[in-house]
Design goal:
Length: 339
């Protein structure tokens, strides 16, 4: 009997193939449920005591040799080019996919655009390098108007007619010049003011302008629209309108949203009042409509303008506005999962 097992050991050692079916047959023959090894182990009890030790060692050798053979043949098979094919081993884990991230300004801008597009506003854009007419004069800010001082303008070279726009209201003018009412448009974009740079303000920032012109547009429409907007963006519907002044709207207002006073940050951001100023707005001044070729006896409209940067700081708890323009990858990467 022992001799027979030794013959098998020799056969196992000599066995070689690159055919997966033959390897499987080999495995079943020796190691399968009804394989030879099972039979030999069953023989064990019939073996005379003095031979038991040698017999046991020999079948164990056969077993480990058969097992090793199956393993090495299978491994060799996996490494051959034919089984790898063009794509290699398809069951291997993939390369990690590097996700990009959106800039927080874009995230907030997209949210705002989305909210207004749901109530029929389209998106319009204008140039960042503007002329005096579109940034000031058409908006009821003639030369020497004191309100021009409020917006510390960057002029390009020495020509006072070429400047960096100080607000996106210039796009209102361009849009009204080129489109007939009904008008419902929002205009996001970058604006520039010659202001000292600090944690709270920068010499360039971003605004979204809104403009609605049609027959019979009223202040009530403006308020409803703003309330819808703050509810959608902040989840807060309590707003208040404080009388204010802009040369291009009459009447004009500043919009505050009730943010609440739950956390310390709320106290800081709202200076302890719970109210947060988010935008300027008003009814488009009839002069502005006329300047853009729209009959003010037939049409009326409202406009609003808000800063995106401060809203982004607020929504993402960013402590310093300068972080938005430093392009520090450690900062930007943190917005990977944001929408
Ligand atoms: N353009 C104004 C600003 O930059 C905001 C505003 C826009 C106010 C439209 C009223 C209407 O402060």
């Amino acid at each position: 009997m022992i001799e027979k097992i030794k013959e098998h050991i020799a056969q196992v050692e000599a066995f070689n193939t690159t055919n997966p079916d033959e390897i499987e047959q080999f495995r079943i023959k020796y190691l399968g449920q009804k394989g030879l090894l099972k039979d030999f182990f069953a023989e064990f009890k019939n073996v005379p005591n003095e031979q038991k030790k040698e017999f046991g060692q020999t079948i164990n050798t056969l077993k480990s040799k058969a097992q090793d053979k199956v393993n090495t043949l299978k491994e060799a098979l996996e490494n051959t080019e034919e089984t790898k094919g063009v794509y290699g081993d398809l069951s291997r884990p993939g390369e990690p996919f590097q996700l990009g991230s959106r800039h927080p300004i874009s995230i907030v801008k997209n949210k705002i655009v989305n909210i207004f597009s749901r109530i029929g506003f389209n998106v319009s854009e204008g140039p960042e390098i503007e002329d005096d007419w579109h940034n000031f004069t058409a908006l009821n800010l003639p030369e020497y108007h004191p309100a021009r001082d409020m917006q510390d303008t960057f002029f390009i070279q020495t020509n006072p007619d070429v400047l960096l726009r100080t607000h996106t209201s210039s796009v209102q003018v361009r849009y009204m010049e080129n489109n007939k009412p009904p008008i419902r448009t929002i205009s996001p974009g970058r604006v520039y003011r010659n202001e000292a740079i600090s944690a709270r303000s920068h010499c360039f920032f971003h605004q979204v302008e809104g403009l609605y012109v049609d027959k019979g547009v009223s202040f009530a429409d403006l308020k409803q629209t703003l309330q819808y907007f703050t509810t959608e963006l902040f989840g807060k519907s309590k707003i208040r309108l404080r009388p204010s002044y802009f040369p291009f709207t009459e009447p004009s207002a500043e919009v505050d949203v009730y943010w609440g006073l739950e956390t310390e940050t709320d106290y800081k951001m709202t200076k302890g009042t719970g109210w947060l100023e988010i935008m300027g707005c008003g009814m488009v001044d009839p002069n502005v409509l006329e300047n853009c070729g729209i009959d003010s006896s037939e049409y009326s409209g409202f406009a609003f303008g808000m800063g995106i940067d401060r809203i982004a700081l607020l929504l993402h708890q960013i402590p310093d506005i300068r972080m938005l323009s430093e392009n520090d990858i450690r900062f930007l990467e943190q917005f990977k999962s944001a929408d």
